Amino acid sequence: MKHVIFAIVSLTGPAFADTAGDPVTQETLLDRAEMTRIADTIDAAVDAKDWATARAFFTQEITVDFTSLVGGDPATIPADGLIAGWSANLAGEKESFHLRGNHRISFDGADAAILKSHGYAWNRMASGALPENGGEALWEVWGTYEHGFERTADGWRVNAMSFTATAERGNVYVRNTPGS
């Protein structure tokens, strides 16, 4: 009987909440669907280089942490600056593909939430295949995302975003060099 009690306690502790998110309820079902749609749409818009659509889902300022990829420190920046950086890096010949899954959402009251998900992304750039640029046209990365959401007058918007890389492979030239 001790084992059964331990299992029940384990399924309700902090580690379970971090892995599983909050339970789905009728009250949160639409909010969850909208947050998942927004995170996925940001990825699709970035891959399509549709910067206006990507920008529409952020608050005016956003706290970002991509330090596992590029170093530095987390920062709060204008969302326009985030989009400008992405559009400059993913310009011209550089293609991207983002895929996410295992969405888990935890609410902090009725108007704030964190969406955690696993993510995969690749960048492809033909010039990376040139011998002087590393000889490989691809770079790919796996990791975990966290999107902070707040409810605004315009609906749910992302106010924080982080990515923690767990593995990467390929040509860092492709990762680091803006497309032309």
Radius of gyration: 18 Å
Could you tell me the strand content as a percent range?
A: 35-45%
Cα(first) to Cα(last) distance is 65 Å
List SSEs in N-to-C order: HHHHEHEHEEEEH
Could you name the ranges where pLDDT drops below 50 across 5 or more consecutive residues?
1-16
Give the integer mean of the pLDDT values.
91
DSSP strand count: 6
Assign an overall shape.
Answer: elongated
Q: Decide which structural class fits the backbone.
A: alpha+beta
How would a textbook summarize the main sheet?
6 strands, mixed
Number of helix segments? 7
Fraction of residues in helix: 25-40%
Question: How are the strands of the biggest sheet laid out side by side?
Answer: 2-1-6-5-4-3
How does this structure look, described?
The protein is of the alpha+beta class and 180 residues long. The chain has 7 helices and 6 strands, in the order H-H-H-H-E-H-E-H-E-E-E-E-H. Strands 2-1-6-5-4-3 form a 6-stranded mixed beta sheet. Strand 5 and strand 6 form a beta hairpin. The protein is elongated, with a radius of gyration of 18 Å.
